[in-house]
Amino acid sequence: MYKALKLTVLLLCAFSGTSQAELCETTLTLGLGNIWPPYYFEENSQPAGADIDIVQLIFAEANICLNYRKMPSSARALLELKNGNIDFLYAASFSEERAKIAIFSTPYRHETVRIFWRANGLEYLSSASLKSLFLSGLIVATNRGSFIGKKADKILKMQNNAAVISVPTIEQRMMMLTHQRVDFIIEDEIAGLYYIHREKIKDIKLHPHVIYQDDISLMFSRKVSQQTITLINTVIQQNGKKIDKIIESYVNKN
Fold first, then answer.
1. What confidence tens digit (pLDDT) does each residue in 24-75 have?
2. CATH code at 79?
3. Which of 69, 102, 185, 205 sits in a 20 to 30 Å window from 30, CA-based?
4. SS3 letters across the chain
5. Per the structure, how many domains does the chain have?
C-alpha cells in the first residue's frame, strides 16, 4: 500500500554508533503532514522543528526508535492513523471524534489559535467574533484536517463553501491573505507570527479575537500498546522543563 502511495520513510535511532535492534525493543512511525514552521520543516532533507525536537527528546528518553513517514496532507495523515498504517501524530488537539479512533498522550505543550487578517478598511470589525466576521460577509482560509475547537468548528460548518476555503499549508494561506483572495485566516498563533517575521510581512496582523486554546498531545493509533503509551506519558511528565526550553528556543527566533 505504501509503495503505491510513494511515501518516503526515514529512520531515526536515538543514539548513533549502535544498531536499531540493539537499542530499541519498540519502533513507532510518526506521520508527517504539511510543512508547518516552526513546529515542522526540513533541514538538509531531514525533519526539523520544535515538535520534531520534542518527539526526538521523548523517544530518546524512552529508548524507542522512530520512523518518519511523509503524508500528502495532514488530513491524509489522520486517515492513515485511523487505519493503523502509522503509529502516531504530533500536535494533536483532543476531540471526542478523534478519541473514537485514537489514544492521546499526556499534553506536552499548549496551543492558541488566532485570526490573522489585513485590517485595512476593516477596523470596525476589530471587536467582532468569528461568527460576526462571517455575518459581515468575510471569507476565511483554514487548515485542512485541523481541529480548532468544537464551537469554532461548528461555526465553520454552518457557512457555505464560498465562505470557507480549506488550504493545506500555512504558506498558501498567507499568500491568499496577502493577495486579498481571502479576508482572514485561522492559524496557530506561534506559527502565524513565525511566518510573518520570517517573510517580513507588515500588513498582516493578529485580530484580537481568540479562536481556541487547548493542550496539545501526541495522538496514537489504537494498535500501539498501552504500556508504550504509559512509558511515553511518564517521559513527558519528567521532561516538562526541557520541552519548554525547546519551544522557547524557537519562539525566541521569531
1. 889 999 999 889 999 999 999 999 999 999 999 999 999 999 999 999 887 8
2. 3.40.190.10
3. 185
4. CHHHHCCCEEEECCCCCCCHHHHCCCEEEEEECCCECCCEEEECCEEECHHHHHHHHHHHHHCCEEEEEECCCHHHHHHHHHCCCCCEEEEEECCHHHHCCEEECCCCEEEEEEEEECCCCCHHHCCCCHHHHHHCCCCEEEECCCCCCHHHHHHHHCCCCCCEEEECCHHHHHHHHHCCCCCEEEEEHHHHHHHHHHHCCCCCEEEEEEEEEEEEEEEEECCCCHHHHHHHHHHHHHCHHHHHHHHHHHHCCC
5. 2
